[in-house]
Design goal:
The structure holds two protein chains of two kinds. By secondary structure, chain A is an alpha/beta fold. Chain A is built from eight helices and 20 strands. Chain B has one domain: 3-Layer(aba) Sandwich (Rossmann fold), CATH 3.40.50. Helices cover about 35% and strands about 25% of the residues of chain B. In chain B, the strands form two sheets. Chain B has a six-stranded mixed β-sheet with strand order 6-7-8-3-9-10. Classes of the chains: A alpha/beta, B alpha/beta. Chains A and B meet through helix 6 and helix 7 of A and helix 2 and helix 3 of B.
Amino acid sequence: MNEDLNEQRERLLMSGIDLSEKERSGTFIQKDAEILLTVARHAGLEVMPIGEALETYEWLRRDYFWKAVPADKDAYTRAASREREIRGVFVRAKSGVKIEFPVQACFFIATERTAQKVHNIIIAEDDAEIHMITGCSVPEKFGSAVHIGISEFFVGKNAKMSFAMIHNWTSDVGVRPRSAVIINEGGSFVSNYICMEPVKSVQMYPVAYCVGENALAIFQSVLYGREHAKMDVGSAAFLSAEGSRAEINSRAIATDSAEITARGEIVGERPRVKGHLECRGLILSERAMINAIPSLKATHHDVELSHEAAVGKIAEEEVRYLMARGLSEEEATSFIIRGFLSIDIKGLPEKLADQVRSIVKISAERLI
Amino acid sequence: MLEISDLAVEVGGKLVLDGINLRIGEGEVHALLGPNGSGKTSLIMAILGFPEYKVVRGSIKFRSVELTSIPTDERVRLGIGIAFQRPPTIRGVKLLDMLLVCRRAQRDGQKNDEAVLDEEMLRMAERLKFDENFLHRDVNLGFSGGETKRAEILQLLIQNPDLILFDEPDSGVDIENVELIGEVINEILQRGEKPSVRKKSALIITHTGFIFNYVRADRAHVLLNGKIACSGIPDEIIKQIMEEGFEKCIRECLSEQQVREGERK
């Protein structure tokens, strides 16, 4: 494996990427525009560079490529669609194949002042089950760079897909993921997004289209904004088939002069759909800003949509309670922050969930 | 154990306690009764040292250590514990996390500092009718009245302080829960032992008095408008209040006071 990535072993581990590939069903590693490793070690699992996959499968371009995310959505998708050589990963779990260990995909930027553009397509065919963990990172001391990532997910009938993405950038990196997922009948998609490390700006708004009956979409995110970070992060779910459901859950902490906009939108369009949106923000500095924008829209009368949003500083009463059990004020404050960030990581295999939880925990310990 | 002299406390510039004198000896349980707004909770909060309860006069000594200038957590680590009337919810912090914090606060509890549930804690949880799953719930989130009170008592059981302040342990709780809470309070306070071997002291605040059907107090005080209006034998005071309400008791207290004042003159 490429040497400068070996040096980044620890940093990648904190992004959920294990270079030893222990308990991973597949691995994809891209550094800048160079694809370093593509491994699939499970029958019925394919992991390929997207360029090669587009050449191999004529149906991929026809049925999937730019079919969940419109190519003309914005300046970033247009820039990505103009690339002649397309980078990124193609992952497919074939029909009925259940893959226990996750597939890891790593997007690393090693060269300053570059714009890394990737286009990923992840498919779980009918009745398949797949777990993805994506880690995005740069070296610890790093200048400016831009990452534009198009990700299109397709969840077949009764298929299960989970997607955990960990961003581990530095304070001069701009990030523009553009993602969408199409979920068919009885399928489920669970996304967990973690961004605890510095970033210059991140703007993302993944969209789930529940097009099959009883489809389920869950988006969870944990954001820690610091320094001058500008984070505009949210998700949307369109419940376009009967009985489909969505949950959007976000935790945001803003300190220093970070600005976080936490969005969430659920649109109920068919009978018996259900959606719940929860958005909680903690402000730890006088210069920080959190803007929570939950939105619910019903275009049918038989829907059940709800939201909870709360933004504010740490409650005095909670600090007191812990002090009355013997913690100092500082200890009590960090205890509350840890609790706030300990979002219930859903939909991942237990071990992977533990890994993600411990990454959140270690990042939190370093901050507090 | 606890010695309060001429204590005056302000909250938001308003005098809420004025000239409180109270001595609780080792092994003693005192009842503090009084109508809503009489200053009962303020007294407990001042003993704990919450910053908005500003001591403007007097002193609070715990085992001869002056408490008024030291922060809450240090007072707690000296061996003071509290069961709150309405404890807050802390999202993401589990009841188990609170128990681990309490175990750490236990003064001589250095022996086991691992972040895991031990057998003893589990046994204590069972004593308070909590199963292990319950301990993994966010503390006080969606707890019933009884569960909230029992969770407070469980934390104290693990913390094992020498002086315990109970703020309305019997309010908003059904009869079975009051009975259980009463039994466990008796155990914590070693009420089954002979008075000479009891080491744990307590101040129990109540406006209903129900808890005293289960826990015997050694002395009772009635607080009115920030002053202790009268003190005496718990059975008599509690019985009178439960049967006839505060008004009559207070009238009698006040007339006694007037008599005493008259005698002094």
